[in-house]
């Protein structure tokens, strides 16, 4: 057990160019792509707020102004909806604005995820913090971030989220070598490898886009040379912490088996939209019925 500082802040890296979604992302941030009736980024901010993290820092880049606009007030739209008596849509518009205290800083040069996290140093200060990547949407009915925060408070180290994947797909992820901890439902991470060849992967446990990090990671990132892709890799910094000693050392993993929606590529994004659409209270019944008919027609 440890007397770790309470976690209050979330960092959301959102400076990527979204090249896999071109031309849709030519003038619109990939984080603003709609997933049913909300942009993907709003699901991520909501997750942070639901976990008690109402101080959110977004790491943005060029052509990301739409992110700031989405979480800002839009008086003319709100006034119009109020005049029409459309309380439901008015509440939905205002909800995005009222989610929490959201700050923004630009990454500048796109030097990788590790560099993006390092840009949060001044805002975060000397306390642990959460990092949420927008490509992974975690179902609001499943606990993950709050569990990771609890593990960080108990261990005083850094915590990553893991999922089991088909061994043949591990090269698309960071992979870990881990060991069980007797009496605990989390594991100790011994080694991290960024996108290993299948035959060299230490396991089929893949790192996904949720982290709860001890502030010592900033010092490590400042001394981490560019790695894979000539970028500063957060994975490399975590590997250093996994084998370090002293305050803030140690990396632990929470294996997640709940509902996760991947919006990182076009096919996965479409699957996420369909899945969440089918579960939507307003649209689900009609969408599921239409899908059955559509699939039947395609098979005939």
TrEMBL record:
- The top EC class, named as a word, is transferase
Recorded hits in Gene3D superfamilies, A to Z, give:
Spore Coat Polysaccharide Biosynthesis Protein SpsA, Chain A
Q: Which reaction does it catalyse?
A: alpha-D-glucose 1-phosphate + UTP + H(+) = UDP-alpha-D-glucose + diphosphate
- Print the keywords alphabetically: Nucleotidyltransferase, Transferase
Name the Gene Ontology molecular function terms of this record: UTP:glucose-1-phosphate uridylyltransferase activity
- Specify whether Ribosomal protein is a keyword of the entry: no
Keyword Nucleotidyltransferase among record annotations? yes
Q: Which GO terms describe its biological process?
A: UDP-alpha-D-glucose metabolic process
Catalytic activity, EC: 2.7.7.9
Q: Name all Nucleotidyl transferase domain ranges.
A: 9-273
| Family per similarity comment | Belongs to the UDPGP type 2 family.
Protein name according to UniProt? UTP--glucose-1-phosphate uridylyltransferase
